[in-house]
UniProtKB/TrEMBL annotation:
<dbReference type="Pfam" id="PF13649">
    <property type="entry name" value="Methyltransf_25"/>
</dbReference>
<dbReference type="GO" id="GO:0030798">
    <property type="term" value="F:trans-aconitate 2-methyltransferase activity"/>
</dbReference>
<dbReference type="GO" id="GO:0032259">
    <property type="term" value="P:methylation"/>
</dbReference>
<feature type="domain" description="Methyltransferase">
    <location>
        <begin position="34"/>
        <end position="123"/>
    </location>
</feature>
<dbReference type="InterPro" id="IPR029063">
    <property type="entry name" value="SAM-dependent_MTases_sf"/>
</dbReference>
<dbReference type="InterPro" id="IPR023149">
    <property type="entry name" value="Trans_acon_MeTrfase_C"/>
</dbReference>
<dbReference type="InterPro" id="IPR041698">
    <property type="entry name" value="Methyltransf_25"/>
</dbReference>
<protein>
    <submittedName>
        <fullName>Trans-aconitate methyltransferase</fullName>
        <ecNumber>2.1.1.144</ecNumber>
    </submittedName>
</protein>
<keyword id="KW-0489">Methyltransferase</keyword>
<keyword id="KW-0808">Transferase</keyword>
Amino acid sequence: MVWDPQQYLKFSGHRLRPAVDLLVRIPDFGPREIADLGAGAGNVTKLIKERWPEASVTGVEGSAEMVAAGRKAAPDVEWSHEDLGHWRPARQYDLIYSNAALHWLPNHAALFPSVMEKVKPSGMLAVQMPRNFLAPSHVLIGETALGGPWRSKVEHLVTPPPVEGPAYYHDLLAPMSANIDIWETEYLQVLEGENPVKEWTKGTWLTRYLDVLEGDERSAFEAAYGARVAKAYPKNAAGQTLFPFRRLFMVAQRKD
């Protein structure tokens, strides 16, 4: 995927809120080494550094475009341009934080214990992932993919939801954890503008499909999805679009 920082940050206020909600639930235990996995454009990594200014903070991000934006937003953070799927640090961290990133990686049954192994004893793992994949915003992407002349090019992208329920992650992390706090929040996001749910997904999940297509076919796919999603999320009397969005959170402390 080619990430567009400007498209992603169109809704930066809404995207930042769950990241901050996760950050404030982390105990102030004085971490010295912190990794932010999937650091994106650095707007959250900057807040991590501001909370723990004495800590060494590393932003790990697979998109060159996002890393460039991150270095501008958080110049006092060490940036590592590498694919999260191949992240194999030589050391452990007091805190590993990841906001809206790990759902892009497969095989969570192996992934989450592997990430937890990179946390020092008594350290913390803090993760937020979207769990909105059965909402019309995401289901209609798959329907559009399977219902047009582009099907053969994009049908491989139509996959089951990548994030499981809370109990699944509790069972994965419990054997390695002294305590775990897992919860879900559904935010009722009030969006402005023309077809804002399309614009929202264009900054994340829809990008996977558009990257495969070119020219008129790409435009036609976006227009077909846009028509579907605008009908699913009509504007209210005030001209606003209400977009409920569920997210899954977890904060786990590793056993000594």
